[in-house]
Specification:
Oligomer: single chain
Largest sheet: 2 strands, antiparallel
Strand content: under 5%
Strand order of the largest sheet: 1-2
Order of helices and strands: HHHHHEEHHHHHHH
CATH architecture: Orthogonal Bundle
Radius of gyration: 20 Å
Number of helices: 12
Shape: globular
Number of domains: 1
CATH class: Mainly Alpha
Length: 295
């Protein structure tokens, strides 16, 4: 009866939730990289969306010019973009760690404009098609919908990556070094640990996650210079709601907001683009540090 009043079917609702879960997987991976960089380096990386776009473009260029298939692109593109990010960190961002967060925000915003401008000048604003891998062509019958195999792969792969990164940072010795390097770098140096190298590798890991997300998104969305602009706005909202610097908050909130966005498209499509920001305003009023953040 309720579904009749709303004008939808249970199958339609579940299908929309599955679509929202795919978007949530992208939000979770991007937010995880952004939270990792802020939590470890205290840098608000506004270039994260541009690096996400760069990952998609690098995968497309590897395929277009060198014939590198998707699976190799999934490995090589994040490594290339992460190396680029580490160069940026050593040459530019490392000079700002002792300054206010605003300086890092302004620098990364400028870098985002430069990166987007470069690809816009090289390839224009029209989208480039990245084909779906042959192994994931077709769909799986879930009973209530036909789920494209590639979208199902994205959900499982994103969950595995997020879990692996969280376990690496929170449960391994290297991860403890990363956390200690941000809380008490002088003590860590006394134990003979190369703190600047640890910071650079942390930034590279966060950037690599953004690029990896871009490669995954390339077969679904057209590859174009502005593809990271909308995404970075959503991801900043996710990170704020989850709690700045909280990796668990980034993962859970990213997936949750993808589902909320999917529900909004069913019940009130006009609000689907703004519901995330309404939730962000409510969370900031009731819990300014975010759902999983610390005061």
């Amino acid at each position: 009866m309720l579904f009749d009043l709303l004008g939808i079917t249970p199958q339609g609702l579940l299908a929309q939730l599955m679509v929202g879960l795919v978007n949530g997987a992208f939000y979770a991976m991007l937010s995880l990289g952004l939270a990792l960089i802020f939590g470890m380096l205290n840098i608000i990386n506004f270039a994260h969306g541009a690096l996400y776009m760069m990952g998609a473009f690098v995968a497309w260029m590897l395929l277009e010019y060198l014939g590198v298939p998707f699976w190799w692109g999934l490995v090589l593109a994040p490594i290339i973009v992460a190396a680029f990010g580490m160069v940026l960190e050593r040459t530019m961002l490392a000079r700002l760690y002792h300054l206010d967060h605003l300086y890092g925000l302004l620098l990364t915003f400028g870098l985002a404009l430069i990166i987007e401008g470069f690809f816009r000048e090289m390839y224009g604003v029209s989208g480039r098609v990245y084909p779906t891998p042959d192994q994931f062509r077709g769909a799986v019958d879930l009973g209530f919908m036909m789920l494209p195999m590639y979208r199902g792969f994205i959900i499982l792969f994103a969950l595995a990556v997020c879990l692996a990164v969280w376990l690496f940072v929170e449960r391994t010795r290297i991860g403890s070094y990363l956390r200690a390097g941000t809380e008490n770098p002088e003590l860590l140096k006394a134990f003979g640990i190369n703190v600047p190298l640890m910071i650079t590798l942390t930034f590279g890991l966060g950037v690599g996650l953004a690029a990896l997300t871009g490669v995954l998104a390339a077969p679904i969305y057209q590859v174009h210079p502005l593809m990271g602009f909308h995404m970075i706005i959503m991801v900043f909202a996710v990170v704020v709601i989850g709690g700045l610097g909280s990796m668990l908050g980034a993962i859970v909130t990213g997936l949750m907001l993808g589902l909320v966005e999917g529900l909004a498209r069913v019940f009130y499509p006009e609000m689907s683009a703004t519901v995330v920001f309404i939730l962000m305003a409510i969370v900031l009023l009731l819990r300014p540090q975010g759902l999983f953040g610390k005061r």
